[in-house]
Design a protein that fits this description.
The complex is a heterodimer of chains A (about 350) and B (about 180).
Chain A: H1 2-41, H2 57-67, H3 78-94, H4 115-136, H5 140-171, H6 176-186, H7 195-208, H8 220-223, H9 233-258, H10 280-301, H11 307-334
Helix pairs in contact in A: 1-2, 1-9, 1-10, 2-9, 3-4, 3-9, 4-5, 5-6, 5-7, 5-11, 7-9, 7-11, 9-10
Chain B: H1 3-10, H2 13-26, E1 51-52, H3 62-66, E2 72-83, E3 86-99, H4 108-112, E4 118-119, H5 132-135, E5 137-138, H6 140-145
Antiparallel strand pairs in B: 1-4, 2-3, 3-5
Classes of the chains: A mainly alpha (about 350), B alpha+beta (about 180).
Chain lengths: ~350, ~180
């Protein structure tokens, strides 16, 4: 009985706690990393005053947000105003329960057999946090941000779904662990057969996390801060945290579905076996770090798209491209012996 | 459309060019000067804190007239003295005040001065104070000693023999 309790309650709780803590720290330090990288791209030095080389900057930021006054604007919908940050932070963190960080059963919380579906469903809820938060603030800038978020969602969710389906066809499974194992079996990452799908997925992923060049809902230069204009203190911190957590989610998902999760490059080529000295978890984190770097690189480079341009890209380019790509991949997989 | 033209229309070359540019600057030398620890030397003609030399001032009031915002206040009286058995008169300065907090560093006073008794090319700029009405109001003693002003390394206050860092008309020898 005691052992049963440990396997089904104690051990998962411990893992959840570790992952939550690691995630919050990661999100905080991701903001430091982003500020530093952006500064370097702009030939500045970035934060380097708090602690050695500015390493304590995120801690100072978090402390500041903790002690800040928590304002609720007059005439705001108090309950919905509170609900907004909750609705965005919870899905962003829940999604991590199915992401596999490594092969052994200890390196992920659970392996749901509809993992991809679960992630897509849950992470889509996060948009409600933005829409409701923007609406409840009783501020026209916030409302504009929320509405933009709603319109943005319908234009990127569809091509994203199709690009994910491409991977499902290749892997013949919805479980994230199985997808990685299928890539091991096939001997190559799915980015090679599904390169177009990967591009579509990552562009949509950038749009889903409201990052540059698709940061229309919080468009700093047009809408003050968009949907979180009126938020301060910990509520703002939740929005902030959720944005970075979502970046990690999209990056991990890209890693798992297209870049072989915890596998080393070309997992079946024995000539590259010396790469196995790097543990699987590190491989996974390295790939995720690369995608996070891409995010920041994009932010340092691209100007914001206009609203109609975003819709145009979503409906006129990404959707047809992902559909055609899906058909082509499905055709080749259905050929006799067409297992990738 | 040629093959390469088609390829260039599909591949977003402009976006990649942008990424290349920012990627290049990521590794370039940073332009930031970490101010309190390192500081750039201002140019010789940089106009900063006032220098004022009481011995060179002949109380012509050119600076007072030249100042567009009237922040230089001069008061003087005549004193008699004997030279070679003759009685002569000279002006003695009582008050020479500059309200530096209102100064816009136009250099017109320095240009009006025939004896280079007032100048701005001191390279010294650290005159910040917590209280501006008294700390940034300089009478002649404060002006001579740069009271409350941190001199730029290598520059001296006028009382210790500080001279302008730049002279219109070249580097002639000063005759004392």
């Amino acid at each position: 009985m005691n052992e049963l309790l440990w396997t089904y309650v104690g051990w998962p709780l411990l893992k959840i706690l570790v992952i939550l803590l690691a995630l919050v720290l990661l999100a905080a330090y991701l903001s430091w990393f982003e500020r530093k990288l952006l500064a370097y791209m702009q030939i500045r030095l970035g934060p380097n005053r708090v602690g050695p080389k500015g390493w304590l900057q995120p801690i100072a930021d978090a402390l500041k947000l903790f002690v800040k006054e928590d304002l609720t604007p007059g005439f705001a919908e108090k309950f919905v105003f509170l609900l907004g940050p909750v609705l965005i932070i919870v899905p962003a963190l829940v999604v991590f329960s199915v992401i596999p960080f490594g092969p052994s059963p200890h390196l992920f919380i659970t392996d749901v057999n509809i993992g991809v579906l679960f992630i897509l469903a849950v992470s889509s809820i996060g948009v409600y946090g933005i829409i409701l938060g923007g609406w409840a603030s009783n501020n026209k800038f916030s409302l504009m941000g929320g509405l933009r978020s709603a319109a943005q969602m319908i234009s990127y969710e569809v091509p994203m779904g199709f690009s994910v389906v491409t991977v499902l066809i290749l892997a013949k499974s919805l479980s994230l662990v199985r997808i990685v194992e299928a890539q091991k079996q096939a001997g190559l990452w799915f980015v090679f057969p599904g390169f177009v799908a990967f591009l579509v997925y990552f562009i949509c992923g950038v749009a889903e996390t409201n990052r540059n060049p698709f940061d229309l809902p919080e468009a700093e230069s047009e809408l003050v801060a968009g949907y979180h204009t009126e938020y301060s203190g910990m509520k703002f911190a939740f929005y902030f945290l959720a944005e970075y957590a979502n970046m990690v989610v999209v990056s991990s998902l890209a890693t798992v579905m297209f870049f072989g999760g915890w596998l080393r490059p070309f997992p079946n080529v024995s000539a590259l076996a010396f790469l196995d000295v790097i543990p699987p978890l590190v491989w996974f984190l390295l790939k995720v770090a690369f995608f996070l770097f891409l995010y920041i690189w994009f932010r340092g480079t691209f100007p914001r798209y206009r609203f109609d341009q975003l819709m145009g890209i979503g409906w006129k380019v990404l959707l047809p491209v992902s559909l055609v790509n899906l058909l082509v991949v499905a055709y080749f997989v259905s050929l006799p012996g067409g297992q990738v | 459309m040629s093959f390469w033209g088609l390829l260039a229309s599909v591949i977003p070359v402009d976006l990649l060019t942008g990424l290349k540019t920012t990627g290049k600057y990521l590794f370039s030398r940073k332009a930031t000067v970490q101010y309190p620890e390192e500081r750039k030397e201002p140019a010789d003609r940089f106009r900063g804190m006032f220098g004022y030399s009481l011995e060179r001032c002949n109380v012509c009031r050119g600076c007072e007239k030249a100042c567009p915002i009237g922040i230089i206040h001069i008061e003087s009286h005549w004193e008699e003295y004997e030279q070679d058995g003759k009685k002569r008169k000279k002006q003695v300065i009582d008050r020479y005040d500059i309200d530096v907090k209102r100064c816009m560093f136009c250099n017109l006073c320095a240009e009006a001065c025939p004896t280079e008794a007032v100048w701005l090319t001191t390279k010294t700029y650290e005159a910040a104070a917590y209280e501006r009405n008294h700390a940034l109001y300089f009478n002649k003693e404060k002006l001579m000693h740069w009271e409350g002003v941190k001199a730029f390394p290598g520059m001296k206050p006028p009382a210790e023999g500080g001279l302008p860092a730049f002279r219109l008309g070249g580097e002639e020898e000063e005759d004392h």
